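Hi Q.,

Before the meeting this afternoon, I wanted you to have the N-carbamoyl-L-aspartate prediction in hand. No need to reply - just skim if you have a minute. The sequence and ligand are here:
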Amino acid sequence: MQTTILEPLFNFENLVKPVHHSNGLTGQDIISVSQFDRARLAYIFSRAHEMREMVGRVGSTDLLRGFILACLFYEPSTRTSASFIAAMERLGGSVIPITQGVQFSSVSKGETLADTIRTLEQYADVIVLRHPETGSVQIAADYANVPVINAGDGIGEHPTQALLDLFTIQEELGTIDGLKIAMVGDLRYGRTVHSLTKLLTQYRVSLRFVSPEILRLPLVIMNEVIDAGLDVRETHDVADVIGDADVLYVTRVQKERFSDLAQYEEVKNLYEITSELLTKAKQKMVVMHPLPRVGEIHYNVDSDPRAAYFRQVKNGMYIRMALLAAVLGKA
Ligand code: NCD
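Predicted structure with the ligand bound:
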């Protein structure tokens, strides 16, 4: 038998700078953006930069070789699941993907979330979980002895999306403080809006919330914004914000969260960002979207340099690489 000596693809030690002594994330669950203060955000962002540099130079490394991630999704996903899988594999780890197929797992036989989690932790070093019930990821984390990362809990939070959203704003515009950020669409059910808004209360930003009456931002989150002393306004009309927004964060109306589909039909097509509308926007601004889009950003916007949503997608992989490395103690 021929023996091959496996050389690491990339020597990560050369990239890691000594500023990363203590990030406090090792072994931690990631449940909410409230776990991230500005120092921790700066740490994750600087690691994400390193990940981008590493991927650009050599594509992958062996930092997480021997580690296994279980990716458990009880709701549909393309970007969040794929980027966690790509993140783990680019760091040399492996994945148990129960993503497009909980219907093929024992969940379909009636197994409880607790038992599924207690099973997966026997195999995996970290679990990424998306579930339709708000608060369910915290409950799963309470059962698990390995770190659990929230990939969206119903209409609750989506912390890793908010980290990549904030990172994208910083990358695109060079700052976060001082910006006017408008969020458009389903502010009531959109968990990405909830997490990003909470995270932004740590910055000196102006917030503009654009939605129909029935999809306004939940009061409890609005109160956090007000308590933080931010300049905030609500409106039904994108025309009120398009001229001076630095960030236009557009979201899908979350059909699956409506109990009354007639209500969904009333509000589903209220907003459409088009290249014509963007002629009224600043030259230096960005249009973002957590995706998937279902008509709220016209395809004629895609070629506009201000359309940042696919760059935002890529940033998601770097941020998740940084988080996995931190949680698994490879800081
Ligand atoms: C979002 C989600 O699942 O919350 N997508 C994502 O994770 N990138 C937004 C949505 O589903 O509309």
